[in-house]
Write a structure and sequence with these properties.
Blueprint lengths: L15 E2 L5 E2 L1 H12 L4 H8 L3 H9 L6 H10 L4 H10 L17 H14 L4 E4 L5 E4 L1 H7 L9 H6 L3 H5 L3 H18 L4 H13 L19 E4 L2 E10 L7 H5 L1 E7 L2 H10 L2
Helix pairs in contact: 1-5, 2-4, 10-11
Length: 277
């Protein structure tokens, strides 16, 4: 499967002549790589995007310059993340479509307020806000008390959870949880194959698990994988859920996720409740 790399495609690359004599634009090369990465032929993309196969061929080879509507259609058909969609627009000589605003920007105030409400409502159970690269953005009081103990102050949740250390030692079924987490990381990395920061994060995670055997069995009694945390002589069974903004129109909102932790039984609920007394 083709991998889209920053070395292969440069956002400001000029139109170049290949050895065949055909003209290929940076937009066309990137579009072709995304199409191949998703496993689509030009005909399949044509049907998905409602753009003629001939026009897709022309813009991939640089014979035609795409308009805004064409870029929108192919980007959505290929399910390209908003941050990468902005790069496609810029490569086509068009303005970026989605605002690239910082988390602390005034424009995000109502969205931050919604996040804070969910974090507060989640207490006494842990909740965390992470970005695309699993950097910790926010945590509620329960989350800080459970996972932000001394030695667990790393701002990246992949490093905090997977690297050898205090938190990893707390997870009774670490092998199951870690390899399930790795599966999720790989899927997220596949969504943005040109993201060097994500690829580096995935490499670190793989290194952390090099001596952790992947569980062979898939037979589980639980309906979903439940992390089990050792707290003294007790084992706390937890359920995790993920929340995100629907239909985002800004890259940051497309990437933020709220990781929610719930008790899986009465004992776990009592533990979390007592933790804040």
């Amino acid at each position: 499967m083709p991998i889209i790399s920053a070395e292969t495609i440069k956002p400001d690359a000029s139109t170049t002549l290949e050895h065949t004599g055909s003209v290929t634009s940076s937009f066309g090369r990137m579009l072709k790589q995304w199409r191949q990465h998703r496993g689509h032929s030009q005909l399949e993309l044509s049907l998905r995007a409602d753009v003629s196969q001939k026009h897709i061929s022309f813009i991939e080879t640089g014979r035609s310059r795409p308009k805004v509507e064409t870029v929108r259609k192919v980007a959505e058909a290929l399910e390209i993340p908003l941050r990468e969609q902005n790069k496609l627009y810029e490569m086509a000589g068009l303005p970026a479509r989605f605002p690239d605003v910082h988390y602390d920007a005034a424009a995000l105030t109502p969205y931050r307020d919604a996040i804070f409400r969910m974090l507060k409502q989640q207490d006494p159970f842990p909740a965390y806000v992470v970005d695309r690269w699993w950097n910790l953005i926010e945590a509620n009081e329960a989350g800080k008390m459970l996972f932000m103990a001394p030695g667990l102050d790393t701002p990246n949740m992949v490093d905090a959870f997977m690297a050898p250390g205090a938190f990893r030692d707390m997870v009774e079924n670490f092998d199951e949880v870690a390899w399930a987490f790795m599966k999720r990381l790989r899927a997220e990395a596949m969504q943005a194959p040109g993201d060097e920061q994500m690829q580096a994060l995935l490499s670190r995670a793989q290194a952390y698990l090099q001596n952790v055997p992947e569980p062979k069995t898939t037979d589980r009694h639980e309906l979903a994988l439940c992390p089990r945390i050792k707290m003294g002589d007790a084992v706390i069974n937890m359920i995790t859920m993920v929340a995100h903004f629907s239909e985002p129109n800004a890259a940051i909102l497309d990437e933020l996720r709220l990781e929610l932790v719930f008790p899986a039984d009465a004992e776990a609920a009592a533990f979390f409740t007592a933790m804040q007394v």
